[in-house]
Amino acid sequence: MKRAVVLLSGGLDSATTLALAHSDGFETHALSIDYGQRHRRELEFASRVVQALGAATHKIVALDLRAIGGSALTGSFAVPKGRPIESMSEGIPITYVPARNTVLLGLALGHAEVLEAFHIFIGANHLDYSGYPDCRPEFLAQFERLANLATKAGVEGRGSFRIQAPLLQRTKAEIIREGIRLGVDYALTLSCYDPDDQGRACGRCDSCQLRLKGFAEAGMTDPAAYQPREP
User: Fold this and answer.
1) Range of 84's domain?
2) pTM for the full model?
C-alpha cells in the first residue's frame, strides 16, 4: 500500500484532505504541529478527526514559533475580526505566520523520508483563503522540487517525493460537499483562529467567516460549536 504523510491541523480543510488520502488508497500517517499557536485547541480536534477517520499513526510535534513571532497567531497582536470577505485576498493579513508552511512541510518531509512515504498531503487552498503566500501553487511546486534535491531518498533515487494539495483549486463549498460525501464529521473540526476555553469558534475571524460562507453556499448548516454572538 502507498504511504502518505498528511499534515493535520484539526480544521475543515485538513480533515477533508485526510479523508481524500484515504479514498485514494493511501496508508495515512497524520502529522500535527504544536507551534505555539493561540488556537492550539485545534490539536485536540485533530486527534478527534484521526479517531473518526482513522490513520496508521498520528504524531504531534512541538515547535515553538512564538520565539519568532510576527503574527497574531503566535504573538500578542489581536486577531482581525469582522473583515469583509471580499477584502481577504487583498494583501497579507497579520494572521500570516512567517514561513509556517515551509516549516510544517519541512517537518512532514523529514517524517515522510523516515517512513519511506513519498506522498505528502497538505490542505492548502488558493480560492477561498486569506491571501497567504505559502498556500499558492507556485510555492508548493517549488517545495516539491526542493524535497527531491534535499533528501537522501531523493538523491539516491529510492523514490520521488510529491506534494499533494487536492483542495488547492476548490471553493470551500466544494470542499465541504466532498467531505460530506467521504463521511467527514465537521462537528469534530475547529477552523477558528481565536476559540474560547470551551473550544467554541468565534464566528468572526477570517477563517470562521470563510468556513461559514462555504457551508452557506453548500446549502448546509455548520455543525461546529460557535460562541454566542454579542447583541
Assistant:
1) 3-217
2) 0.96
